Amino acid sequence: MGTHTAPRDEHLGHVVFISAAAAMGGFLFGYDSAVINGAVTGIQKHFDVGNGETAFVVAIALLGSAAGAVVAGWLADHYGRVRTMLLAAVLFAISGIGSMFPPSIEVLGMWRVLGGIAIGIASVIAPTYIAEVAPTAYRGRLASFQQMAIVLGITVSQLANWALNQAAGGESTNHLAGVQAWQWMLGVETVPAVVYGLMALSIPESPRYLLSDNREAQARKVLAEVEGADVDLDARVAEIRRVLNTEHKPRLKDLLGGRFGLLPIVWIGIGASVFQQFVGINVIFYYSSFLWQSVGIDESNSLLISLSTSIVNVVGTVVAMLLVDRIGRKPLALAGSAGMAVSLGLAAWAFSFRHGTGDSATLDDAYATVALVAAHVFVFCFAFSWGVVVWVLLGEMFPNRIRALALSVAASAQWIANWAITVTFPNLSDWNLSATYVIYACFALLSIPFVAFCIKETKGKALEEMG
């Protein structure tokens, strides 16, 4: 093995910047996926549609995300990591403008799919790129930039939604400068999309991609910049080359093997991705304004609650970033699973006291308080554990020869699971909100034996040692 020395401070600053630039895709991913939360009520009123059509428009972006995640690995291997980021930025910007002025709900769905493809690409390319440029000693913390960017994107979108809703007098269908508030909510995304594109232009290509493209001089320059002057460049280049030479461009058949079709490690990646979504985390971020309105809280206050859960999400993510390289991936995931199971169970209990249905539903103050506290505790437990750990693991756990492709497959599974939760929630909550939360609590419980028996700790290992 080559030497893996920690970079000196000036190099670390550079690595932090390029990791943050790559993670800007995560910011857009968080912003785009959660901004719909504030616009849901406005979309329902403007197009005069019910829960079924609304769920379709919210969830359809996630099918685009699954498609984007599938092609991201191929794009990254053929055109490089940076060009793939630029493509995602352009798609984000086009989607934002299109979503702002949809003539019909079907056309809005089409623009949401395009934004979803960009999200899927960004969700794969950022952890791949960060894992490839980050020095081993800091890789967990730098990989968690992706999740921090996602939660910041969610928070900024909720803040923008609330501010626009307030400016429009508390109704998302009211006009601001001749355009309805919910349209502004969807259109503002173009601004961070342009920032992402500019930041992508300012970062170096991944040394692993450069070596695979026979650009050794550039790869050495990047390695020296990110790993510091003390690194043995000959040894690092030889190490990466040895790994590249023993691998070939991964094809889907390379992921096959084992008793159930795919390699066990790929199934574990898919399992981690599915559990991350099946606890119902994105119900909070896509539908929380709808959720709180369904228990009698008005639109303006429900958006304020959405903002507060987003802030808790940021705090939990900071905790994870501080701990992921210190105590490891598994302990964080186990602690989070236990906390999520308890808080989801409490929320289910509180929601069982809901009176009435639809717009007339109410929840007594005491139970509403329990539900609110439980929701915030749930978000915190998710944020300090599964939110960060899954993305860190997906960037690390696969053998080099299949990493990009296996990550694409696992991320696609995540988007499909996310879609399944998102598209079913409005109808499930109409059926029985409390039982819906019992289902999410059961998945949180099941994730405990999954982590205990299936996940291997990756803390402190070089990427070349995986698999």
UniProtKB/TrEMBL annotation:
Protein name: Sugar porter family MFS transporter
Gene3D superfamilies with a match to the protein in the record: MFS general substrate transporter like domains
Family: Belongs to the major facilitator superfamily. Sugar transporter (TC 2.A.1.1) family.
Localization per Swiss-Prot or TrEMBL: Cell membrane
Keyword Transport: yes
TM spans (from-to): 12-31, 55-76, 85-105, 111-130, 260-287, 303-324, 331-351, 371-393, 405-425, 437-455
Cited InterPro entries: MFS_dom, MFS_sugar_transport-like, MFS_trans_sf, Myo-inositol_Transporter, Sugar/inositol_transpt, Sugar_transporter_CS, XylE-like
Cytoplasm among keywords: no
